[in-house]
Each structure stands twice: as structure tokens, then as C-alpha cells.
Amino acid sequence: MAFRKEPVFTHGKIAKTAVLLVNLGTPDAPTTKAVRRYLKQFLSDPRVVEIPRAIWWWILHGAILPFRSGKSAQKYASIWSKDGSPLKVHTEKQASLLRGYLGERGHQVQVAYAMRYGNPSLPEVLERLKTDGCERILILPAYPQYSGTTTASIYDAVFEHYAQVRNVPELRFVKHYHDHEAYIQALKESVLAHWEMNGVSEKLVMSFHGVPKRTLKLGDPYHCECQKTARLLAQQLGLSPEQYLVTFQSRFGKAEWLQPYTAPTLQKLAKQGVQRVDVICPGFTSDCLETLEEIGMEAKQDFLTAGGKEFHFITCLNESPTWISAMAALAEENLIGWPTHLSSSEREQAKLQAKASLQQAERLGASQ
What we know:
Layout: E1 16-26, H1 32-43, H2 53-79, H3 86-104, E2 110-118, H4 122-131, E3 134-141, H5 151-162, E4 170-173, H6 181-198, E5 203-209, H7 213-217, H8 222-237, E6 244-249, H9 262-271, E7 276-280, H10 289-305, E8 310-314, H11 321-335, H12 344-367
Parallel strand pairs: 1-2, 1-3, 3-4, 5-6, 5-7, 7-8
């Protein structure tokens, strides 16, 4: 087997530590060609679709890609910003802010971001970190709830990359943080901020991304972790069981997925006389197609058409200070034992670098 070429080794070079934020991914552009390329990579992952490869190849290339790519491209176009894909824009800002927060807390670490599907790709970013001298890498998935269809796929991609590398760095992975106090607090403050501006809703619907029901029966903990996130958030908000609902969106194909489904539930609530609903998507840490278009547009229309009067979508955590602080806490907890703390002089320098990172992130936000 031929391994990748190693960077030139320099004796005495200080080994660096990196935190790598990994999100799902996005097409490079809201075009049929770009979306087709993205969907092909995404739906070819056996973690995502557990159908025998020979059968699935014909379904994917004969039915899905030719017909779904154009429709999906139209949906992406409806939420695309002048800076590009919202998911990529938010993830980039989060990484920049996280670098600043960790620097202010006295940690000398590099922070980068990558996409499981699309660009910047995981192999590309891992190779860049190696060239930069990073010998310790913490992988931080953007998925609070673990699933074999998401988090485990990141593991696969990382291990596949390093199977071709001679000198493999130390690796750590954050598996999940669905019940982490700082994450729940960030969600709570997001909801309270929305209610302060818009009043309290009759129903809070917590919509998570769906997965096939069979994955639950086969031992995937995703469903249970979603339920725990919802329960903890409801407790923090002081909600009774009658005041909130847990639903699952983005069903694909004819197989049964986790229920109740989001769209039919919203229609049912409207027909029952519920005048207003607020919908939050706790499983998404960055706004994307599934939140901005599927919930903010399609689900809203479903509710209003069925007789509802007022629909509110509570945006994802994105760059909220409590969420970036929560990410920093997660990183700190998982960096324990690695030499990231600075001397007093180094810390002052890091603060200056952190300030520059924060200003850069603020400029990115202002340009949005």
C-alpha cells in the first residue's frame, strides 16, 4: 500500500493541537449540477442508506439523482445568501468565534471546520492540519445527538483518511452532547429570547431530523437522545408535557421513520384549533435547508393552510454567545491532558489573537 507523502520533518518543532468542527455539508452552489454531485456523495454513504449496494445503485442513479437534483436545487436557491450556503457561512463563523473564545480562556489551539460531504472536505482539512504541524486533533461533530447515520459517518471518514497516512496524529472524538448543561442552556436562552420579543406560544414543537425507525430497533441511540434533549429543555423552560411536542422531519422514501412526523403533526394541531405554534430544531446547530426551507417555509405553509393563524420558527443556535461558549466548554472538557495552556506572556498574545478572531467573526456577521 502506498501512503500519503509526509511533510518534511523538522527536529524540535513544537507539536500543535487542533479542534476540528465537522458539519454535514452543503452543495457548492444552488444549481442542479452542484446539488447532484453533493447528493451523490451523501446518498452513496452506506451509513446514510442501509440498502444493499447493487440495488441502491440503480435506485440512486436511475430515479433519485435525475429527478431530485433539480427540485433540491430550487429549494437551495430559495435560502442561499449572498455569502453562499447558510450552513457553511454559520459553520465558518462558529469556528472563528470558537478560536477566539478558547484563546481568551488561555488555550493555544488551532480551530478549523470541515464538511462530511462537500467542501471543505474532511480529508482536505485533515491534510492541511497535518502540514501545519498539528499532532493532536479533537473532532467536534456539529450533531448534538449521536446517530450511526451522522456522527459515525464522520468517524468512518476520519479513519479512512488516516488508513492512508504513515504518521497518524493523536485523535479524540466528541461522541454526543445532547444532555450537556451548556448546550441545553444555549437552547433555553434561544427560546426565551424569542418569547421575549414575540410572546409565549401555545405549543412549542421540537422538530428533530428523522431516521428510519429500524435503526432504533437495531440499537441506534438517536431517538432516545432526542427525547432526552427535549425533556431537559422543557424542564429548563418550565413547560408541562401538554405545552410541547417532539416530532421528526425530513422523511425520505416509503419506509417507516421515527414518528410523529413534523408536517402532519402541525396540520393536526391547526385542525384541533391551536392558533399559534413555535418550532425549534434542537438537533441542528446551524441553520440550513432543513430548517430555513423545510420548516421556515414548507412547515409554515402546512400549518397555516390547515387553519393555523401564527407560525414562528426559532432560528438555530448559529453564532449565539451562549452556544459558542458551550462549544468552548465542550472543547475544554475533551482537551484535558493535552498541553494547550499558555504561559502568562503567551496568554497575553493569545488574547490579542482572540480579539482579532472575534472582530473577524463580527465583520463576517455584519456582511451577512
